[in-house]
Amino acid sequence: MKYDFDTVYDRKHTGSMKWSVPEGTIPMWVADMDFKTAPEITEALKKRAEHGIFGYTEISDDWYDAYIGWWERRHGFKMNPYRLMFCTGVVAAISSIVRKLTTPNENVLIQTPVYNIFFNSIVNNGCRVLENKLIYKDGEYNVDFEDLEAKLSDPQTTLMILCNPHNPIGKIWDKETLSRIGNLCKENKVTVISDEIHCDVTVPGKSYIPFASVSEICRDISITCISPTKTFNLAGLQTAAIYVPDRFLHHKVWRGINTDEVAEPNCFAALAPIAAFNEGEAWADEMNSYVAENRKTAEDFLSKNVPFVKTVKGEATYLLWIDISAAGNSDFVSKYLKNNSGLKITSGTEYGSNGEGFVRMNLACPRILLMEGLKRFGEGLNTMYKLKT
Fold first, then answer.
1. Burial readout 148-169 (b: 16 or more C-beta within 10 A, e: otherwise)
2. For the segment 203-218, what is each residue's pLDDT rounded down to a tens digit?
3. Domains in the chain, CATH or no CATH each
């Protein structure tokens, strides 16, 4: 490999949320990486920092070209630059859109288990969370379309938040599934926010399908939230984009993010995506290969050493969704591991009521850290299993 993903860096004194843990604890919870970002990005930021003047910043044509070029090259999807907007983050975008497109007490549908902050974006804006619980069978998740249709047909349901690829289960939704979702939403006058932040973290040879690319229907009813932050480990720079093909819907979203003052970049947030998408492709490919090997290593380790837990096969994200129901409930297992094994992972209940019996583990770290985390996970789970049986 040209790039280094094996070196362990000390993040304890950098203000890192992930590493704000007791001494000796390995954090494998929140979704950021323990890899340094692509050196091409660092060099671009250094050059900008050396200029020494950090005034108000505008989005340049290069920013639009970088996003459009990346999505066309990587995903065969051509975006209209006049429908693309900067936002300070995907979560900021989602919260602003919920606020703008709903009125209090309306339903916003999500498909659980799903990214926990969706709940906050809905509830904090006075709306009701409506769960379309995914069906888990034989180690795989699929959409319960009967339940989805019934809940979308409720006149109080006005918005759906789609997660594609899906966090925490790591699934890339196929074209047929996305098309059916789009058709049902169109029939019931429901707008779709598609959170596609994990779209470029996929197993080698596998690509996701942008929701807006599936059909004219999906295009016209959708708001797509994207960012380089997961792929290139840039979450702390607060940079993202929103793509809204429909002119009228675009105007509403544009008004929303400007009213909420989340539409103006700092100088690094405006620059980092340009360097990432124009110069970071080789790094992203190597990162995906490294993470895929980490995933295989974790699956093999757990299968051999903790056979009573089951891993859900993931095609995307650097997150591993693990069925630990044989050892205990999710909250107990995650707390036990943190307190007794020095391993911090996330309880499945964070992601909705049907996340019970699962935990989420972040695999985006040097392999030496991964192996130590897996060792602690295995020892802790085996102890709990023996106590239970």
1. beebbeeeebbbbbbbbbbbbb
2. 999 999 999 999 999 9
3. 26-37+281-388 (3.90.1150.10), 42-279 (3.40.640.10)
